[in-house]
Amino acid sequence: MNQDSRGPFVVAHRGASAARPEHTLAAYELALQEGADGVECDVRLTRDGHLVCVHDRTVDRTSSGSGLVSEMSLEELRDLDFGGDGEPSPVLTLSELISLVLDWRSRPTKLFIETKHPVRYGALVENKVLAELQRFGIATPASAAHSRAVVMSFAATAVWRIRRAAPLLPTVLLGESSRYLGGSAATTVGATAVGPSVKTLREHPDLVDKAAVAGRTTYCWTVDDPDDVKLCAELGVSWVATNHPGRTRAVLDALGPLPDSQTD
Predict the structure, then answer these.
(1) Quick one: which of 6, 1, 33, 5 has its CA closest to 15?
(2) Spatial contact of 204 and 235, defined as CB atoms under 8 Å apart
(3) What is the pLDDT of residues 194-213, one digit of tens each?
(4) Number of C-alpha atoms within 13 angstroms, CB side, residue 254?
(5) Are 88 and 21 in contact (CB under 8 A)?
(6) What is the DSSP letter of 68?
(7) CA-CA distance, 22 to 181, in Å (whole number)?
(8) Distance (Å, rounded) from C-alpha 64 to C-alpha 147?
(9) Cα angle 34, 35, 39; round to 5
(10) Where is each GP-PDE domain found (predicted)?
(11) Span 134-182, pLDDT tens digits
(12) What are the domain boundaries of the chain?
């Protein structure tokens, strides 16, 4: 992952999820239209082995149904409505999201995939993610800087599995603790970036410099307040995940180029 003089790149958190239902095709299409540099999704495995873009263990909050994602088949999930705004929307698969991102011709866009743990399927989640990326020809980029996909997790073991199987694929070790992210964990698993929450970053702004010294970039979530967007730019954060990609892009554009921005 690299950065230019514009300051942080904008990642649409679950799509443009402040304006459209999260993890829906409409949310991601709007994010791309608003100029997001990347889009983020959470993935879970269905009972029959399909990767779907759902954040929670259950579908209760985000759909018209109820139950555990891991206990439902893709067909059963497709019978539910994940729109919730008057516009019916079926569950979005990782395959469908990858296709959308790769087919978007206006500009290259990165896909940030977060694997959720603990889950009943364990390492199979990362194996399935890598298989899907391989199917689309983006699992083994020429370099991390040119990769179209990034894999993230709060679970260090998940990051380690990705780094072991696909060394050139960028990875983010997510976390809330500055001691965890600023310590040896990221080095041990070979993460190419650390991902603090914006709350953690406010309390420990030195995390960005510490990561840079170790050769890692910084991905900060979830950055919606304009003052936090400006803070990330000032600190040299590489990527900001936001529910408001269009607004966040406008805030950054208004700041202009930052001559001291980090590069990698």
Answers:
(1) 33
(2) no
(3) 999 999 999 999 999 999 99
(4) 10
(5) no
(6) B
(7) 27
(8) 36
(9) 95
(10) 8-252
(11) 999 999 999 888 999 999 999 999 999 999 999 999 999 999 999 999 9
(12) 9-20+32-42+109-255
Greatest alpha-carbon pair distance for the chain in Å reads 52
pLDDT at 144: 86
Q: How deeply is 67 buried, as exposed, middle or buried, from its count of CB atoms within 10 A (0-12, 13-18, 19+)? A: middle
Cis ω before 8 (30° cut-off from 0): no
Coil, strand or helix: which one is 197? Answer: strand
**pTM, two decimal places:** 0.94
* Distance, CA of 19 to CA of 218 (rounded, Å): 26
> Are the C-beta atoms of residues 240 and 232 closer than 8 Å to each other?
yes
Instruction: Report d(CA 254, CA 74) in Å as an integer.
Output: 43
- 169 close to 189: Cβ distance less than 8 angstroms: no
Q: Which active-site residues does the annotation give? A: 13, 55
Beta strands 51-53; 38-45: pairing state = antiparallel
| Amino acid, res. 27 | A
CATH 3.20.20.190 fits 9-20+32-42+109-255, yes or no: yes
Q: CA-CA distances (angstroms) from residue 134 to 119, 166, 261?
A: 23, 10, 33
Q: For the chain, give the number of residues.
A: 264
